[in-house]
Amino acid sequence: MNDTVTDSGTLERLLAQVALRDRNAFAELYRHISPRLFGVCLRMLGDRGEAEEVLQEVFIAIWNRADGFNPTLAGARTWLTTLTRNRAIDRLRQRHADSRTDSFDFDSLPDEGRGPAAHAEASEDYRRLEHCLGKLDPKHCRSVREAFFTGATYKELAERSQVPLATMKSWIRRALLQLRTCLET
Amino acid sequence: MTTPTDEEDRDLRYAEYVLGVLDSDARGALEREIARNREASARTAAWSRRLAPLADEIVPETPPPQLWTRILKALEFSAPTAGAVGPWHSIRLWRALALGTGALLAAACAALVFVFVSRPPVPPIPFMAATITETDGQVGWTATMDISKARMIVVPAVPQAVQPNRTPELWLIAPDRRPIPVGLISTHVPITLTLSASLVELLGPSARLAVTIEPRGGSPTGQPTGPVVAAGAIGAAGAAPPTAVAMRLARPTRSLV
After folding, report:
1. Quick check: A8 contacting B, CB < 8 Å?
2. Residue B235 confidence (pLDDT)
3. B86: confidence class by pLDDT, cuts 50, 70, 90
4. Backbone dihedral angles phi then psi of residue A148, each to the nearest 5 degrees
5. Mean pLDDT across the stretch A29-38?
6. What domains does chain A contain, in order, with CATH numbers?
7. ipTM value for the complex
C-alpha cells in the first residue's frame, strides 16, 4: 500500500499518534508513505545508497519531530514531502562541489517527469499547480521544475542553463511570484 | 515602512528556501529564523503547500526491506522483555501449571511433553534461520536462531498493522506434532525469545515456523486460535556467518495449523 490510496486524514491521524510515541502507528505510517518519500529521495539524489540513508534520517526525524506537525499550516503529505526534500537538499549541499552534477542528465528531466506518476490520480492541488506552471514562460517553468526535482542552487541552475546568475535568479523569482498570484486566484 | 517590494522580497526568500535554490549558509540562516519566528514558519508552510504537490509526479518506489530494520535500530527500539516471550515461557503459565490450574494451557503442555518423550534429541545445529513469508508471498518476519544461546531473534521485515487488541504469536510446527507456542512477536520491532531446551531439540530443517494473530497476551488455549498470516521453513545456515544465512522460503499453507 502506498500513499496514493491513503487519504490525508489517515496520514494526519497516524502522525498525531506518532507524536504520542505510538510505534504501531509509526510502522503503519512507514507502510503508507515510505514509497512516496523514497521516490523523492531517489529522484533528488540519483543514488540508491544515499537515498536510503536520507530516508532513514527522514523517518528518525519523523519519529522525533512529529509533535511539531501542525495540520493548520500544511497537510500531512505536504509536511512529510517537505521534510524529505529538505533532508535531500541538505545532503546535496554536503556533497563536495560538483562531484556529480556533470553526470546528471538534466535535459531528460522536464519532460520525463511531466504529469502525475502514472498510477496516481492527480490531486486537486497538483492540477492547480500544473495549470499555473503552464502559464509561465517556458524557460522560467523549466528552471522551477529543475530546481524542485534536483535541489540545485541558483548558481548550479545558472551554470546548467548557461545564463548569468542574476538572470536565473530573476527567472525563478518572477516565476514564484506569478505562481503565488495564480494559485491564490 | 514596508513597501510592497520589500514585502515581496521577504516572502520570496521563504519561497526560495522551500524550492531549494539557496546555498548552505542562506538555508541555515532561514532555518534559524523559521524556528523562532511564527510568521516565517507560516509563510514557509504556505510555500510548501503551493510547491509540494509537484512531488506527485515522482513515481513512488518501495524501499528495500532492511531499511525498516535499520530505522528501528537507529531509534534503539528495544524489544519488550516481559510479556514478549509468550505463553510458553511465561512465568504465569508455569505458575498455573505448578498450581494445577492451567487447564486451558494443558494442550500446549501435552503437545510438548508428547514430543519431548517421543523424540530423541537431535545434534544441535549451531545457527539456523527461517524467513517467515506472509501468505501473499511477501517476507513477513525473519527468525534467526542461535542454538548455542538458546534464543531466537524475530525481526519484522516490513512494518505491519494489527488490530490494537491483537498480537502476532509464533508457533513451531514439527512434523506430526501439534503447534508449539514459541512466543509473542511484534509487527514492528525485533523480539528476542528465549527457547527452552525441549524446544531447541525440535528445531531443525524439517520443522517450520508459523505466525497467527491472537488476542493480546497470546492464544488463550495454548493452540492457535487466529488466522495464519505467515509461515516458513527452518533451514540450517551451515557455515555461513549469521549475517549471511541462506534463507529457505516455504510456500505457506493454511494446513500448517
Report:
1. no
2. 58
3. very low
4. -65, -45
5. 94
6. 1-95 (1.10.1740.10), 101-185 (1.10.10.10)
7. 0.90
Burial class (CB in 10 A: 0-12, 13-18, 19+), B91: exposed
Whole-angstrom Cα distance, residue B98 to residue B67?
44
Q: Which of A31, A60, A63 sits opposite B159 (nearest CB)?
A: A31
In chain B, where the domains are located: 4-57, 67-256
Q: What is the CATH number of domain B67-256?
A: 2.60.40
Tell me, what DSSP letter sits at residue A6?
Answer: S
The pLDDT value given to residue B51: 97
Q: Give the residue on A whose Cα is nearest the Cα of B47.
A: A180
A46 in contact with chain B, both atoms CB, cutoff 8 A: no
Percent of chain B predicted with pLDDT > 90? 21
**The pLDDT value given to residue B129:** 64
Task: Enumerate residues 6+ apart whose C-beta is below 8 A from B49.
Answer: A74, A75, A78, A125
pLDDT of residue B251: 36
Angle between helices A138-150 and A165-183 (to 10 degrees): 90
With contact defined as beta carbons under 8 Å apart, do A28 and A14 qualify? yes
Crossing angle of helices A23-45 and A76-94, rounded to 10°: 50
Sequence-ordered list of residues with C-beta below 8 angstroms from that of A37, at least 6 positions apart, any chain: A55, A58, A80, A81, A84
